[in-house]
Amino acid sequence: MALLELRDLSRRFGSFEAVSHVSLAVEAGEFFTLLGPSGCGKTCLLRMIAGFDPPDGGQILLGGEDLADLPPERRPIHTVFQSYALFPHLTVAGNIAFPLRMAKVPAREIEVRVNAMLDEMRLAGLGAHYPHQLSGGQRQRVALGRALVHRPRLLLLDEALAALDLKLREDMQLELIKLQREIGITFIYVTHSQTEALALSHRIAVMNRGRIEQVDTPSRLYSFPANRFVADFIGNCNLLDARTLGMAAGALRLAVDGLGEVLAPPGAGASAPGQGQGVLALRPEQVRIAARGDALAADNRFPGTVREVLYTGDVTTYLVALDNGLRLAALLPNTDPGRSAVFQAGDSVTVGWSRQAGHYVPD
User: Fold this and answer.
1) Grouped pLDDT means (10 residues each) for the chain, 363 residues
2) Cα distance from N-terminal residue to C-terminal residue, the chain
3) DSSP assigned state of 43
């Protein structure tokens, strides 16, 4: 049995349906992420699980128990918000102790558990400090410590790292992964950051307009998106409108607008030659690039011109305009020390990819 099960859950605000008939299951000990653009319904879904908002339809089951009649304070669930919501008049130790005091835990036990949590959150020596005296990362850890000190069955995190700068955010991602692994509590994490979701999660539910588009592991979401929205939303992707033509030598034949025939891995559209319409999702790292005239081992090859070069340290992305006007992104690692780019804007190149690259998604 899944720890958390949502059955046909909906939430409406007047005529607007913020969450529409969502069903999913989250396993015990899982780091599960709700991912999607702003306004897709992920925070609304989290608030219903926490008990802050009532659903207009459906069920929320925790360990098989329906939570419908349980107010937020009686649910074995804690929530960490983007703002952290720390009490400014309480010390670090006081903030962490707060839920234990509300539960009328004996004072001696509170002291022991708070001290243990201060150590676990790497806040030892800061128990007497107030929130305004802490860095962003320290306040984040106080909020986590307060949420975890009562050992909830489920921890909800709503854009919990969004207020941090990039370096601290990356550090806290590693801390979250380590913490979740060590304590074994189920995390449900809300974010609009694809890279964050891919880095943290065991599984991800991609949401759009109140509905779930796909639930899968990070690697399968990235490599095998279920539809055009997921392919476009998860990471960078070349999306080539295509029509299925049939099979040839174990490959799917596609007619790509502006390019003609290309070969792709067999997929869902292979059985309907001449009828299937969809998109070939091709990641930039799957696209090879060579100077025009140089040999390029690729089943699908096309001439073009480099228009833009995006250097990001470890990799460089080349935006190439093909001779027919179509644009493709190709990504190369920067393996030579001190060299920022192999090609420059204006260079004539050939781009190509293997018949095993990409993923065809029917519309």
Assistant:
1) 94 95 96 95 95 95 92 89 86 94 92 92 92 88 89 89 78 83 90 92 97 97 94 94 88 90 78 71 95 91 95 91 92 74 91 95 87
2) 34
3) H
Question: What CATH number does domain 236-362 carry, 3.40.50.1110, 2.40.30.170, 3.30.70.270, 2.40.50.100?
Answer: 2.40.50.100
3-state secondary structure of 301: strand
Question: Which residue type does 96 have?
Answer: I
Sorted by where each begins, the domain ranges of the chain are 4-230, 236-362
Residue partners of 302: CB distance under 8 A and separation at least 6: 259, 322, 323, 328, 350, 351, 352
Q: Cα–Cα distances in Å, from 170 out to 143, 175, 276? A: 18, 9, 42
For CA atoms 100, 102, 103, 105, give the dihedral sign. Answer: positive
Question: Taking the model in full, what pTM does it have?
Answer: 0.89
Nearest CA to 69 out of 88, 83, 55 is that of 55
**Quick one: which of 47, 68, 44, 70 has its CA closest to 58?**
68
- The Cα 331–Cα 238 span in angstroms is 11
* Residue 339: partners with Cβ closer than 8 Å, 6 or more residues away: none
Using CA atoms, how far residue 59 sits from 8, 39, 41, 62, 170, in Å, is: 7, 22, 17, 10, 35
CA nearest neighbour of 260 among 184, 340, 323: 323
How is residue 251 written in tokens? 């490959």
Domain 4-230 has CATH 3.30.70.890: no
- Contact status, residue 238 vs residue 287, Cβ threshold 8 Å: yes
**Burial class of residue 281 in the structure, from the number of CB atoms within 10 Å of its CB (0-12 exposed, 13-18 middle, 19+ buried):** buried
CA-closest candidate to residue 361, choices 261, 225, 218, 197? 225
Domains 4-230 and 236-362 share a fold: no
Residues 6+ apart with CB under 8 A from 128: 91, 92, 93
Q: Taking Cα atoms as reference points, which of 221, 205, 225, 229 lies closest to residue 268?
A: 225
